Amino acid sequence: MRIVVDLNRCLGYAQCVPLAPDVLQLQGEEALAYDPNPDDSQRQRVARAVASCPVQAIILEMDPPADRNTK
Amino acid sequence: MTTASLVSDLVTTFKAEGRIVIVGASLAGLRAAEALRDEGFTGSLTLIGDEPHEPYDRPPLSKQVLKGWVPAGNTKLPRMRAIDADWRLGVAATGLDRANREVLLANGDKVPYDRLLIATGVRSRQWFNPEEAKLKGLFTLRTSDDAAKLQAALKARPGRVLIVGAGFIGSEMASVCCDLGLPVTVAERSSAPLVGALGGVIGEIAAKMQRDAGVDLRTGVAVESLEGDGDGHVRRAKLSDGTTLDVDVVVASLGSIRNVEWLEGAQLATGFWGLACDAGCRAFDINGVVTDNIFVAGDIARAPHVLYEYQFLSIEHVDAAVLGAQTAANNMVNLETGRRPHLPLPQFWSGQFGVNIKGVGVCSFGDEIVFTQGSVEDRRFAVAYGRKGRIVAAVTFNHGKWLEYYGAMIERSAPFPPPPPGYDVPKDAEPIPARFPDPREPTGIPDVVLTGHDPTSRGAEFRPKAR
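YS: structure for the whole thing
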């Protein structure tokens, strides 16, 4: 699974953090850090975190497009 | 049949059967490829990249990866859709033959194109002394491989890390060293960290943040030489103030160099600040005439911006790369009336020392600064930058929710100082000089640079023409 958080868009509401704490973490009050390629065991948590974001800043690739593994 | 319908047929045919080559297989290249398919381009699509890796996200490299939380190979970018491309990874483009419309590759191959997107980005500036550059323990940080090596060196718990250069990346790396409990010295030639991007007033605040976190910050000094031990591993650094430091890891964080060399002889408007293009991402040739079939996106692009007196801007930001790539893709497969401008309001962020620094606009275009909200002491505040009575940029420290408020004002060139938001206004809300260094000073180069008004001005040094 792959994610990118658009940290320009992210406003630090941190709704996502408790939903997937192994993937999304706050550094200080407002700066979000994340694991861009989390383990598949995190799928459900990440999906919830994505849905929880008030500004929809988390870009998620849950299922890779068919041609991804060709590169 | 009218000329208009002939041209329209041509575009339809190109979208169905054309050949598009993208040189540069990182964020801009990938997002452009996806946008081209979204636009209905079904012709052949080739992505050429000098790194062997598929496109990955770079911002985490100086943060999560160095810290050891995320492995360097685990920042691969999510794909927005299938792109059905021919990937040529691990082989650099070495030349461009415009007459025959071919990209030349390091392995001797030639890749033909009908339309070309140039997105070769930047690389990190290497240590200036080639002998010292061979020392073990000396690093730069730009690629995933760089990050893997540096992370391994930090994991071995060096006695002291020296970071040369206190721009955003250098400062982020210093922050990681503090988090890891590693003794770290930062040497910066100018007066303070972040001074090129944010000016001297904010630089002083950034300096205090570093010192409070335990960084041994030395400003106004250059690192003149490095010395190695018998194994060729760096052990000492000599500073311009006469002091020496015992160090085991040195990171040269000296800014970036645009990857334009492969375009030598192609008669395009390349130079120190990148490849000049119009606001629609079409490359200029060496005479400042716009080309029809060559487009530019990402860190290598240099384009005029209406908000900044039409000066050419070079922007090394994630946001500008994605939006530029999408605009370039649109303009590659549409006629004049369907073209869009790429006029981003530059945006950036940097997480360091537990503070979220965010910005909008071009700070160094301003000459005055005013604290508009919050408290410097609490490291939670907003500032606005002004020039000639209008707001041109804003920066927040742990106050990012307010950035949109300022962004909207910048877009409409609202008055400076901006009207107070009526909340949390500091007492000393008077404009003061923002104290930017000359952008041409080597250490003061910010990641958004105003580079003059025409394709060849402000340090756009011509490379010698190939004979």
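YS: worth flagging: Residues 347-450 of chain B form a domain with the Enolase-like; domain 1 fold (CATH 3.30.390.30).
IM: good catch. Also The radius of gyration of chain B is 23 Å.
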